[in-house]
Amino acid sequence: MTTPFDLSGRVAVVTGARRGIGLAMAEALAAAGADIIGVSAKLEPTGSDVEKRVRAAGRQFTPIRADLADRAAVQELIRRLKSLGPIDILVNNGGTIARRPAVEHPDDMWDHVIEVNLTSQFHVSREIGADMVRRGRGKIIFTASLLSFQGGVNVPSYTASKSGVAGLTKALANEWAAHGVNVNAIAPGYIATDNTQALRDDPERSQSILARIPAGRWGQAEDLGGATVFLASSASDYVNGVVLPVDGGWLGR
């Protein structure tokens, strides 16, 4: 018996799938029945952790190595994705962060973060989304951030990019919802990944963060799995333009 969360027969693209949140998202989608196309700048052609986990769930895995900071590579990624056939689910998770006070934040750092976190994701969504619109169905999920709602400290380019992701989510949802394409985003809270290693290594900063999280712990990448499957499935067919926090209660504090 199938459920609204069953993704059997669906094909999902997950960018930034090699580790952290992207790896957990890919694993959750595979466990729900989807075949996975994993994308990452350093993704191994065979034997990656994400491939092992997807295949352990009994699903097919296709690796694609692509640098989201390189526009030519992004165009080649789009061409490759189109050649693989219809994409049912697009998870725009690939991203980067640069920590530097605003007065010391150089142009090349700003440009790199915006390119990876926002521009490349618009390009991929525009092209894959157009195919979804033509077919009359599809799911697009962005990885936003708590800093889509807040300003952060010493991460102006990251905050700008993730605020842009929240706006892009709503803009695309407004245009595509009537065509059967759901566009939503997940805003992870403080998750124990490489991106937050510097914060967790700072005892004072780590403790101040923990003190504000009602759940009383740092999130794990696996905590994003349920929200990902929900937004990728027919259970969310009437959910459009939402930025869903998965943050242990941080924003409600």
Describe, in plain words, how this protein is organized in 3D:
It is a single chain. This protein has a single domain (11-193, 221-247), classed as Rossmann fold, CATH 3.40.50. Helices cover 42% and strands 15% of the residues. It has a seven-stranded parallel sheet, with helices on both faces. By secondary structure, it is of the alpha/beta class. The protein has helices at residues 20-31, 49-56, 71-83, 107-135, 156-176, 197-201, 203-212, 225-232, and strands at 11-15, 35-40, 61-65, 89-92, 138-143, 181-188, 243-246. The radius of gyration is 17 Å and the shape is globular. The longest helix has 29 residues, at 107-135. The model has no long low-confidence stretch (mean pLDDT 97).
CATH homologous superfamily title:
NAD(P)-binding Rossmann-like Domain
Strand order of the largest sheet: 3-2-1-4-5-6-7
Mean pLDDT level: 97
Task: Note the total helix count.
Answer: 8
Listing every helix as H and every strand as E from the N terminus to the C terminus, the arrangement reads EHEHEHEHEHEHHHE
Question: What amount of the residues lies in strands?
Answer: 15-25%
CATH fold call: Rossmann fold
Question: What Rg is obtained from the alpha carbons, in whole angstroms?
Answer: 17 Å
The total count of strands amounts to: 7
